[in-house]
Specification:
Strand 1 and strand 2 form a beta hairpin. The chain has 16 helices and eleven strands. The radius of gyration is 24 Å and the shape is globular. It is of the alpha+beta class. The protein has three domains: 3-61, no CATH class; 74-125 and 239-397, Alpha-Beta Complex (3-hydroxy-3-methylglutaryl-coenzyme A Reductase, Chain A, domain 2); 132-220, 2-Layer Sandwich (Alpha-Beta Plaits), CATH 3.30.70.420. Strands 1, 2, 3, 4, 5, 6, 7, 8, 9, 10 and 11 form an eleven-stranded mixed beta sheet that branches.
Length: 401
């Protein structure tokens, strides 16, 4: 079949877009879909048609019905000095964004951190969760299911781990009960993979044992207590993905000369904005803009961008210590990977290579780099607010001419 004939068949409804993959090479199927859209919508998709990604590879794992690729500018911030357990030394940070002033702001934070001899980073927890919902006949039966899960953890662990070489079931906790519904939260370690697919398959296998040995009925493999790709207090408290903390003590001379403000002013703005302001608005994230930095990093390195909503959770603290500034970020919920998913796309691989974080054995290093970068972005924004420079920065870097 020729391309022109395929476009006519699409117009006539004789074939569907997804069927093109069985009839043509991946690159030809991409072109046919795009040319069909151009024809029926009377538009030109010239820029979407320009890409360097291997669509044969992407079509197998990353995308359905592709027509091309979106281009987002990548900027570099740094060098950023990190004193972590896994990330040690100075790093240049790729940030993919279309928001003017963001890279410049992060870059300023990186400069201050490096001048102050680096940011300290720690991973304090590491797990991926899946929480099914199980129906019972009564609250008594729900309580029996809860006890059964607690008493049979080792059996659940053994059968869950038959589905994966890398995933390990750490615990099933908390086990939440709402009347005759039980929501057990399965927690796994997943290695260098973000692991959502891994833990889903493993949990499904473990639930076969539960249904065989109890009266419980699995209603849904996900009962929303996971909590995946949604803001939640349980993830803020319990953590999900990588849970990290980072801090730094910045001498008052650097605060004054580089940030153009004082530790006392930064502490005040952070308390009133990030803590009180977040509380009065019911926000689950007690920070200025974690999502900004995490989104830029996720887009550059091929992470699942929907998890930015989880990465937006966290708490920023600032203390005036006799003119020096103590500054920290807590990031409880950062689902990331250095293998699988979007990390295998060519542009993502290159961004990860900039960070020396591509491939196995690198995910902890990537996590610490992300935490350090978030601290840099937070530090820069809070400083700009405390000195009155925020609007000026956006006029310079982010305003349409």
């Amino acid at each position: 079949m020729e391309k022109t004939e395929a476009i006519k068949k699409l117009e006539g409804g004789e074939i569907k877009m997804y069927q093109l993959d069985d009839l043509f090479s991946s690159s030809d199927a991409v072109d046919i879909r795009r040319e069909y859209l151009e024809k029926v919508n009377k538009i030109d998709l010239e820029n979407i048609s320009k890409y360097s990604l291997n669509m044969d590879k992407a079509s197998q794992k990353n995308i359905e019905n592709p027509i091309g690729a979106v281009q987002i500018p990548i900027g570099i911030a740094g060098p950023l000095k990190i004193n972590g357990e896994y990330a040690k030394g100075e790093f240049y940070i790729p940030i993919a964004t279309s928001e003017g002033a963001l890279v410049a702001s992060i870059n300023r934070g990186c400069s201050v951190i490096t001048l102050a001899k680096g940011v300290n980073t720690l991973i304090i927890d590491d797990k991926m969760t899946r929480a099914p919902v199980i129906r019972t006949e009564s609250i008594q039966k729900s309580y029996e299911i809860k006890n059964w899960i607690e008493n049979n953890f080792l059996k659940l662990k053994k059968i869950a781990e038959t589905t994966t070489q890398h995933g390990k079931l750490i615990k099933v906790d908390p086990i939440l009960i709402a009347g005759n519904y039980v929501y057990p939260r399965f927690n796994y370690s997943t290695g260098d993979s973000m692991g959502m697919n891994m833990v889903t398959i493993a949990t499904e296998k473990a639930l076969e044992l539960l249904e065989n040995e109890t009266s419980g009925e699995v209603i849904s493999l996900s009962g929303n207590a996971c909590v995946d790709k949604k803001p939640s207090n349980i993830n803020l408290i319990e953590g999900r993905g990588k849970s990290l903390i980072a801090d730094i003590l910045i001498p008052k001379e650097i605060v004054h000369n580089k940030l153009k403000t004082t530790a006392k002013s930064i502490e005040k703005v952070n308390t009133i904005k990030n803590l009180i302001g977040s509380a009065v608005s019911g926000s689950m994230g007690f920070n200025a803009h974690y999502a900004n930095i995490i989104a830029g990093l996720f887009l550059a390195t091929g992470q699942d961008v929907a998890h930015v909503v989880e990465g937006s959770l966290g708490i920023t603290t600032a203390e005036n210590r006799n003119g020096d500034l103590y500054f920290s970020v807590t990031i409880p919920d950062l689902p990331i990977a250095t293998v699988g998913g979007g990390t295998s796309l060519e542009t993502s691989e290159e961004s990860l290579k900039i960070l020396d974080c591509h491939g196995t054995g690198k995910v902890e290093k990537l996590a610490e780099i992300m935490a350090a970068t978030v601290l840099g972005g937070e530090l820069s924004l809070i400083s700009a607010l405390s000195s009155g420079h925020l609007a000026k920065a956006h006029k310079t870097h982010g305003r349409a001419k």
